[in-house]
Structure formats: C-alpha cells, structure tokens
Specification:
The protein is α+β, with helices and mostly antiparallel strands. About 25% of the residues lie in helices and about 25% in strands. Helix 4 crosses helix 6.
C-alpha cells in the first residue's frame, strides 16, 4: 500500500510508493524506466495506456481511439492511488497516512516530435485547458487538498518517454514548499496589505533588468534570487490566486508567452532538459488576497550537489540579469 510519511523534524511529507517498488539492481541504470518499443502515447497505441480520463477530439469519436488533440490517462506507475481513505494515524512520534490521491498523464499532442517551441499556440492552449478541467474535477473530491501540474522534458529532467507530456499529482495534504510559499505571501500581505507577487511584477516591469518578455496578460522573468541558471517564472499580470479560475482569454495569452519563451530557450540553450511546475492556491483555503499563481521553469543545466543538499543554499553561476539579457536578445 502506497503511503505518506511525515518527517517529525521538518514536517515534510514523503511518498513511499510501493506501486513503483524497485530492487537494488533497478538503480544500476539511469535508463531503467525508459520505454522500449512503440511509443504508448502515439495515436494508434491507445491500448498501451490505462483508459483515458478525458480527451479533446475534433468532431467527437470514441474514447481510447485515435483522433484526439489532447489525451489524459492515469499514470501506469502512480505515486498515489485513487482508492481508499487517507486514514491518518500515529506510530509513536511518527505520522503516516494512506497514499490516496491521483496521478495522471496529460499527453499534449499526437505528434511525437513536437516541443513547446514548435507546437502551435492553439495546441498549447488545449493543454492548458486540459490542466484547468482536470483541476476543477479533482477539486470536487473532499479527500484532496492540492494538485501540482508539472512537466519533465528530457532524460536529465526525469522524463522516461520522449513524447510530449506533462503530469499532475493530487495530494491529500498541502506540500511543504507550497505551504511555505503561501504562508510567506500571507506574512507579506499582513504587513503591507499588498500581494508580494504583484509588487514583484511592478518592480520588475519598471526596472526591466530581469524581464524576458511580456504580453497583455503575462510576464516572463528571471527571478531576483534565481536558484538555477536561466530559471524563469511566468506570472499573470492581474492578481489571481487560482490557475483554474483564470479567464478564458488568459489561457490563449499564456500559450503565446510559453511558446515564445521556449523558442528563446531553443535559440540560447538548444532545447535543454527542463522541469516546469504550476504553483496554484490550495483547494480549501481562502488565499485570494495574498497568493498569486505562477509557473516556474527550471532548465537542467547543472547538477545539484552536496552543498545544496546539505544546506538548502543554491549556487547559481549565471546571474539572472545576464540570463534575462541572453533570452531577450534571442527574440530581437
């Protein structure tokens, strides 16, 4: 049974995923999870995945058949499982609960070789709308507290399949990093009566040193305290706590700035491996005044080593001002 266990020192929860159980020999190869044979995410191979949860199709069509634009399926090796109750319990000083949640794959396009830089804007918008629809559906489940949308691109970023896809994991608790972000935003709001992200956007648009690109609804910037070279955040320029509550036209605008940002990455960094995450407000909390959803992109250009793991300090060899300048120049 998959379960969550809480570290009594840091209050950090970890997932002990028996669904992904590995023996010592399984760790000998970094390519252990890479798929051999036909791509299970390509059209015509729908039977190779779990049954689809939802899909966007032109003119209808039967589930689990070709003809889809975006397709969502359960992860074949889920970190958390949908069945059961969290059943939180103590074991001496330790807390644990059943690994209840959801783990889904968003297959972003039928085309195996597309990337965010080459995908049409409408296709990226469809992916973003699929994220929205899945969050809105999972939000109705009272057992769940949070959904994280994330994408791993490239083997160095943890992707086991090349076909463009992203994932979501819904959890029965609020992840520690998200909790710290939300609480930090609330502390700032309590002392200033302003959103820290809105203030950040105003200052960055005024100074322009770390802004990469901007459109009517979003700004892409290199954060002031970037942890990694070319780390990039994309934030809505209008205050909004929930990704899933954005106006319809905002998703088209987000698709546009995402495509442009990844085209800049393509020119400067030659299609680097990367991770992205969407940080949105937890389901059951009223964070509308102080929290501001955003998307974080981390190109995997360097390895995190002992100092970072031991201290939580990151050593970034590329100042964010220089990274932003390189990416701005790529669009000139």
């Amino acid at each position: 049974m998959t379960e969550l266990r809480k570290d009594p020192l840091t209050s950090r929860w970890v997932i002990i995923s028996t669904e992904r159980a590995s023996r010592p020999s399984d760790f000998n190869s970094e390519r252990r999870r890479r798929h051999a044979g036909p791509c299970p995410f390509c059209p015509g191979n729908e039977e190779e995945t779990p049954p689809e949860i939802m899909a966007y199709r032109n003119g209808g069509g039967l589930p689990n058949t070709p003809g889809w634009r975006v397709r969502v399926v359960a992860n074949k090796f889920p970190a958390l499982v949908t069945e059961g109750d969290p059943h939180r319990q103590g074991e001496g000083i330790y807390d644990r609960m059943h690994g209840v949640g959801a783990h889904e794959i968003i297959i972003e396009t039928p085309h195996h070789d597309q990337t965010m830089a080459t995908m049409p804007e409408q296709q990226i918008e469809d992916v973003l709308l699929a994220y929205r629809d899945r969050i809105l559906d999972l939000k109705q489940n009272p057992r769940l507290q949070y959904v994280l949308i994330f994408k791993n691109h490239g083997e160095a970023a943890g992707a086991s399949l090349e076909h463009p896809h992203s994932q979501l994991i819904a959890t029965p608790i609020i992840p520690k990093l998200v909790r710290e972000e939300v609480d930090g935003a609330k502390q700032y709001y309590d002392s200033t009566e302003r959103c820290v992200y809105c203030d950040m956007i105003r200052q960055e648009l005024t100074q322009k040193k770390r802004v990469i690109t901007v459109n009517d609804h979003f700004v892409a910037l290199a954060p002031f305290a970037s942890r990694f070279p070319f780390e990039t955040w994309i934030l809505p320029r209008t205050h909004d706590a929930f990704f899933e509550d954005a106006r319809r036209e905002a998703y088209a605008s987000l698709a546009r700035i995402l495509r442009e940002t990844f085209q800049r990455f393509e020119q400067v960094l030659s299609n680097p491996p990367y991770n992205w995450v969407i940080h949105t407000s937890p389901f059951r909390e009223d964070d509308r005044l102080h929290y501001h959803w955003h998307l974080e992109i981390t190109p995997r250009l360097i390895q995190v080593a002992g100092f970072e793991w031991g201290t939580g300090f990151y050593i970034n060899p590329t100042p964010p001002e220089e990274a932003a300048q390189y990416l701005r120049d790529a669009g000139a």
